[in-house]
Fold this sequence. Notes:
Layout: H1 3-15, H2 18-27, H3 39-56, E1 60-64, E2 74-79, E3 87-93, E4 114-116, E5 119-121, H4 129-146, E6 152-158, H5 168-173, H6 176-179, E7 183-186, E8 198-200, E9 202-203, E10 205-214, E11 220-221, H7 222-225, H8 232-243, H9 262-268, H10 293-298, E12 302-310, E13 319-320, E14 323-332, H11 341-351, E15 358-360, E16 369-370, E17 373-374, H12 380-393, E18 398-400, H13 409-415, E19 420-422, E20 438-440, H14 441-458
Parallel strand pairs: 3-6, 3-7, 7-19, 8-18
Antiparallel strand pairs: 1-2, 2-6, 4-5, 5-20, 9-17, 10-14, 10-15, 10-16, 11-13, 12-14
Helix pairs in contact: 1-4, 1-14, 2-4, 4-14, 12-14
Amino acid sequence: MTREAAIAGALACFDDGQYLDILRRRVAVPTESQNPDRLPDLRRYLDEEIAPAFEAMGHSCTIFDNPVAGGGPVLLAERIEDSALPTVLGYGHGDVILGYADQWYEGLDPWALTQRGDRMYGRGTADNKGQHTLNMCAMAAALEARGRLGFNSKFMVETGEENGSAGLAEVVEANLDAFAADVFIASDGPRVSPDRPTIFLGARGAKNFDLVVDLREGGHHSGNWGGLLANPGVILAHALSTIVSETGKIQIPEWLPEPISNSMRASLADITVEAGENAPEIDPNWGEPDLAPAQQVYGWNSFEVLALKTGNPEHPVNAIPPRAHAHCQIRFIQGSKPDEFLPALRRHLDANGFSMVEIAPPLPGNAINFIATRTEPDNPWARWADAAIERTSGRPTAVLPQLGGSICNDIFSDTLGLPTIWIPHSYAACSQHAPNEHILLSEARDAIQLMAGLYWDLGEPGTPAK
Length: 466
């Protein structure tokens, strides 16, 4: 059989409805990892959906319990055809963010697939059930076309990514031989635009923290005490204004990376950030001056206030509030110094007269702390994957040094020492962490043939591991 047959088989799986039938079952499993009551559903997803599908492709499956209390289990599927062949580690996560069922468009249910035009709605369609299901179907098509893969396949599906992948590093570190491979190839996140195949080679890191101004017990009448009592909301607002300018420029030098290198500028030169229909318009004067949008997202650091509260916004009263609280985040590229972020912030606040502003750990549900990682664009596996995708698509692939978002890529790049190749199948306006999550069917159909061609090529001579 041929490469073309593998691609045709993958397209048939999509066009005859098999892919959507599988995805419909998987979306129906409410795998909310942030909801402790869903732990049995996380296990059920692996037992009933993932393990049988990989076993049908000749893989053996092991499910590892998570060493972190309440953490979701981790599945490893393994098919070793010949120890002399390259070994490819894949990845997906079966857990999803909370459903927020009452906030979806009328007629939509987070746990049911619903098509409206080119959009297929359902929780996990984009993040990440739709993406790893697509890869599994593409791998099955390549296997059927050749009768074997021609490479060794290992594929991890975890169920705690939306909780920061708690416990995953410990599982991998305790089973290094089981997860050992030559290259990591997986799918998550968005393309740079819906119609442009994309590779990202790492991810920005993320550090979340809280800023708190807690001045006194209880509120006090604004008429009797206005002008006499310091207002924590005003103090916190002014403190934030020293951290980031009114146009979003970071004002703490220790938070900034090294200037963008010429090689990174070259790799981002033809990248246009185009999130697709109904995406918000980019604010042209926001962030670091003189950086293009692609450089801001894929080659620089950013600071965000995720939530800010003082008093009771839902039911305000005529009282000076006792407390103000901001949930904050820094996204950063490799080469930054995250261990210095908070000490530098403390020095900055004190120097600007804000010693009363406390730097506090984030609330448990917001406790994100990812490491920045990157595989260099000239890595042989990166060049190979770029060529494999373009061989099918016939159009240039966008190759990004790192994703704008964050994921547990350090487990694969640092702990396992692998080149990391991410091939996303979603787009930026897919609402993956919000109500109305969806995929674009046109983009998914394009992606399944790209992955079938790539899995076929992994079994051919000429990969970097051969």
